[in-house]
Amino acid sequence: MTDIRFYHMITKRLEQALPELLAKAITVQPRIVVKAGSRERIEALDSLLWTFDAGSFLPHGYIRDGNEADQPIWLTTEDDNPNGAQMLVLADGATSAQVKDYALCCEFFDGNNEEAVLAARARWSAYKAEGHELTYYQQDEQGRWVKK
């Protein structure tokens, strides 16, 4: 079963939280797929991952770049895994029918959006019924992740 971690964003937005997580994760998981809700979001994340830290960048690509198998981080709106990733990140309410094919899945959701919270709860229940191992993290007032 897949280790699924929910990240309940309250003080930070995805644009802040995602690069932080990816920067840590890439040292352990050399291949990651990030699935977002729209092509526009993928393009914004593409720009963000090049510029979020003046001293570094996160190596990544998406359909426009090609060389899918060589990309350490693959940005997509599809249920594809062309780089052989063992880690999946879901954002913007994106879902995947392939969660079981990954060792780790991280779901980010906006805790300030009631619809997003309700959708995350529904996904939690579905994952639990499927037997996945679930962990829930929520941001504190300083933006740190606290395991609940």
Number of domains: 1
Assign the CATH architecture.
Answer: 3-Layer(aba) Sandwich
Structural class: alpha/beta
Give me the Rg, rounded. Answer: 14 Å
Main sheet: strand order = 3-4-2-5-6-1-7-8
Biggest sheet, in brief? 8 strands, mixed
Overall number of strands:
8
End-to-end separation: 21 Å
> Which of globular, elongated, flat, extended, rod-shaped describes the shape?
globular
Helix run count: 3
CATH superfamily: DNA polymerase III subunit chi
- CATH topology call: Rossmann fold
SSE pattern, N- to C-terminal: EHEHEEEEHEE
Q: What is the arithmetic mean of pLDDT?
A: 95
Multimerization state: single chain
Q: Regions with pLDDT < 50 over 5+ consecutive residues?
A: none
